[in-house]
Amino acid sequence: MKTRKRGLSFLSPRVRLVVVFTSGCLYIFINNIPGAILFLLVGIVIYLVGENRNWKLVLAAPITGAMMFFYNVIFSARGHGGWQWLVFTVNQAGFERGLVMGTRIIGAMLISFAWLLSTSLPEMYEGLSWIKPAEPWVLTILRGVQIIKREFVALTQSLIIRGLKWDSPIASIRNLIPLAMAIIPRVIDNTQKGAAASLSHTRTKPEGNGDLILNDVHVRYSPLLPDVLTGINLRVDGGEFIYLAGRSGSGKTTLLRVVGGIISSIMGEFMGSVTASGMNTMNTSLAKLSGSVRYISPDPFASFHGLTVGQEITFLAENEISARRTLEIMGIGDLWEKEITKLSGGQQVRLVLAGILASTAKILLFDSPMQELDPQGRQEFLSALKDFLVQNPCTVIIADPFWSEIKPFVTRVVTLEKGTIAQDVLPGEFFTEEMLSRYSLLREFRPPMSVIPGEIIAKMDNVYVELDGTAILNGISLDLREGELVVVMGPNGSGKTTAMLTLAGAIKPIKGNVKARGGVGYVFQNASLQTISMTVNDELSFSPKIQHWDSGRIEAFVTEGIDWTGLEPLSCPLDLHPSEVEMLAISASTAGIQVLILDEPTIGLDADGIAKVLDLVQALIQKGIAVVIVTHDQQVAKTASRVVIINMGKITYDGPVVNF
Amino acid sequence: MASSKTYVARRDPVLRYTFAGFLAVAIAAIGWVMITVGSSPSVKGASFIWLPAALQLVAGIWLGPWLGAVAGGLGAYTAGIFAYGGWGITDIIQNPIAGGFANAMLPALLFRMLRLDPTFGCKDPYDVLNGAVRVVVLALAVMAAGLVNIVLALPSPWGLALPLIVLVVGVPVILGNVGRNLNMDHFVLAVDIAVVACGVSALIGAFAAYVGGKPIEAALIDPGVGWFVGDTVSAVLGLFLLPLYTLRLRQAGIAE
Q: Where is the chain membrane-spanning (chain A) (predicted)?
């Protein structure tokens, strides 16, 4: 059903822009009271008939107008007579000037806010993209808005969860300082990802036949850091399907990045030579290389260049028919108009994979593509990949812990150990218990963690949450007890993460109550989004300092964290491997808590890492702390005593794992 | 087949453009908040707590004068548009021109002209913050001592005696051992550059208010003085960001 557009939404984005630009430029020429009042009325009408209103935002307009009026009145020029109030002169001229300035600024602000609230980022792009030389800048900046917003939101949520108060304007301004400092590393990191995404969305014709030759390749990320790859020699023929195995930190991601040209066009440096599909990566721009070699990063959100699903897929597909078909294959055909920011983590992965299926690349490099997908999503992806390879035979190199599902495709296995190739074998030789254990791909069976739950320590009561006008949670009720391990499961986009962020106090519900006795710790799905400090030491001591622990207690907590993570106290979280960041975030989140929420903690960890996390969970629940794990991993689910299934923002099952 | 025997890094220029774009967004986001909560009551958009001055300063020094001016100016302009619909001529003068050219481009040019090391040779970036705060405190103490003469009304040149005493005593007492941990020559010049840039920015801001209809004498006081003080405090934070991130940005191939 089509809804009738109101207010500025009625106009096309370009006309809307012209209206707001003109009013913003010309209002200062309104210099009499009737004109200012008329302008104010226009502003009020445009704002009120608009589809979206934000009363907190609009409050700035009357406050600004009142201040302008007041200060112009009391700072009247003496020459105009009037009367004295304290040290000020108040007269008719100042009064009139104040009235005009105060009234017209309110009008201008209301029109501007009406535009802001009625225009989405894709519409802003539409409004500005006709200026062709500026178009790439417009897109980069609007993508930047989406990315920086995600970082701000994640950092703010992280700061709230870790105990920083945002309860007054002064506190908010004070908190902007750590936020501003922490945002710079984020900007650097996202710049690298954003530039890579921008260049890999340049449509260039594929070249070569998918052959790959690496000759004595060494890679490092900085002269100050050790080499990650040392002397890699590899030859791959076009059409091979290679499974890349190795423990966390063995160099899998780095190898994929150097083949994909990300190193050194975007980050790191290397020596030796890499020839991918007939092109020497050192002499070929990333934009050109991407037509033939596509690297799929494990952070799907940062891989996008478009603002909406439709725009993103159109960048990559040959035509709209092909674009829509690949979205259908990945089960997101109905999301064409949707903004990228409004997709769940799983939907984002599906979109990235749809982009791959729409491309005509000769070499595909997959870095953990299935980790964030639910079981159905993994099945759909592999089925689509199978069809794609029939239509577009190409070389595939894939690193992913779901080896059993990839196994039928694999023609060769290459393993990495400490940055060198350790094995280059046929699948039959690799997929054995011994080899899988050696590369930390085989997880030991863990019995359910049995602790008798105590009293209720956290409670969600009929909670409703809306984000950007979309209902995400529709009446969630959940109790957590001392020493309980609860697993939360559900399909991608069902509201699991939102529910848990609400429980942690980072999202305010529109209806219902959330109560927690004591602190709630939270480890994000992408743990690198929540780190704040520049050293491991500072990261671990951040929450204890906010909670005003004494120095001895802080030191003990930091020492314990460093022992558990095995990290150097002065190393920078930005230089750590994602699995190390995950461990650091988990350790830092346990300060003074009664509930710990781990959102997809197995992502990026090998079997040893997962076992280590589960050992910690066991220790925490024995101390009486309730632990919630959000996961798609059924092996992890089996270690819990209780499972909660969330679907479409509602709990559809809450009971023992055995019955589930 | 080309093969390198030494480590090479060939960065794509898009990387620096993207960084400029993203930094502009960060400046716009923080600036939006600052304009909303900290604007001069008589000149909307002239924020007295302009924290983005820190990012504008580093944008110029890291990205170079032109790209820095684009990031700093675009960010400030967007902040004004979002905060109060500031599209017009006064807004263009006080946001992109003051923010882009004075707060970002000017320090970049001066840093290059004087060949200053943005890391100030320090091992701990907090030494810079500590040093910068002390220099500002000293400057304020000298200014306050000068203003005392309004009350004392000592005849010239005795009126200069008090600020001079504060300066002579204040250097060892307030600055202390800052010089042990920093390259003081570079650091003091950097503080001077930040102050000059903020002064120029404040003058441009005052001019914008004048264009908007305010008498120039009044505009120099409000927003001029508040603008200068607020930007200077924030630019000091920017000096702290320089040693904290410059090496990382150089390694990333973003900073010059």
A: 20-49, 55-77, 98-117
